[in-house]
Amino acid sequence: MGARLLFLLIFLLGQVFLVGTDAGAQDLSSLKPRVGIGAMAGLAYDPGSARDFVGVSAFLLFDYDRIWGHQAPENLKFKTELSIGSSLNTEDLILSSGIEALLYLDTLETQRFRPYVEAGIGLAYTGYRVDGQGLNLNFNPRAGIGTEIKIKGHPPLFCSLGLWHLSNGNLHSDNRGSNAVVLLIGRYLNPWNPL
Questions:
Q1: Structure pTM?
Q2: Segments in the chain forming alpha helices (H)
């Protein structure tokens, strides 16, 4: 259990440092992030020995140019995310921490829905390995689509569907990757305030 706790601490510290970048001395509250939390379910589709998983995911969503210090379109956001879960059959720990660019598709926005696309990179720890996977800690590129669901007078809900890939990027000679489709459903914890 000590190794699992160590990995969790590393992921949490990673989230803190990822937000630091060009924001410099600004504290987190001055960046006015939106905070979201949701339930996730992952369906592993390749290889056959990969395991399905469930868990929770929390994220902070920032105005892109406030983090990176250069002009960016108003509909482009920066997301830091931390997920913790378990494989379904064996209950092995799964941790993922990542950063993503999120782009709202303003031309498709309606009174009820605000769709978006997102893509990024992360690190993921799995308490198991598929055959040919040399490491438990792997790179985690991901991409997806989603939408916010607006509720009058309340913070919006969200739903997204993404593709996750796990691979050690040839840091180990055994580099069999695995892939999953990930569904995330949740809500924002703070009211909608345009960033």
A1: 0.82
A2: 2-20, 64-68
